[in-house]
Amino acid sequence: MSQDIPILLYHSVSDQPPADFKPWAVGPEMFEEHLDMLVELGYEGLTIGQLTELTLAGRPVPERAVVVTFDDGFSDFASNAWPLMKARGVPTTLYVTAGLVGGSSEWLEPVGAAGLPILGAVEIGALSDDGVEIGAHSMTHPQLDIVGRGRAWREICDSKKALEAIVGLRVETFAYPHGYHDRATKKMVADAGFKSAAAVRNALSHAGDDRFALARYTVMADCTAEHLAGVLDGRHARRAPRRERLRTGVWREVRRFRARTGS
Known about the structure:
Blueprint: E1 4-5, E2 7-10, E3 12-13, E4 25-26, H1 28-40, E5 44-46, H2 48-56, E6 65-72, H3 76-88, E7 93-96, H4 121-129, E8 133-136, H5 149-167, E9 173-175, H6 183-191, E10 196-201, E11 205-206, E12 214-218, H7 225-232, H8 246-261
Helix pairs in contact: 1-3, 1-7, 5-6
């Protein structure tokens, strides 16, 4: 049996998030405890790109590998997250909502958090130069599996081009907004030239995982270092199944129906 590979998903590191966004914002002190736990337990950090290269080459993944990712590209990543990670030698992949660079979290208006600032181009370039792997997270953060194929393709392709223009490097990994994807969107991501894509699934990845729907575990504000240690060793998180569960496909069809009918 191949090993489990925990890929952690964070959104924000902040102690002053909007009220309705608090569940997704880990406090700086808590985040520091998470990082110290990773170091103390001997976990070896990888970026998504490094993990993908190892699996594509058929090379072994370090026994205690962990991948830390951030979605959206909030400004607090540069001020509150990356300095703590850099100080401990923990690498990361940052998925940026490319069409909102220098703007704010417009997609969060329904939950009252539309004003969260997004990193600017200069900041993203500096983070890339400092060793942060930059990945694409679409242009405007829509649910790609229900917006129509034409728009989905533009959201995927344009985000890659926009971020490559900022960092001056190839952007080779993508993360599905909200985690939503289907067979068609996965093919678009591959056709656009990405080597991997991150989903959510709240499970542990592994060597046999779909590299265009990598399983990640969402770290919420109330996740203690002790609980996270249990996620990493499999006590509090299951291994992602190789095939999509039937209920996931059913739920996707329900969402498509609602999107078409407005119900």
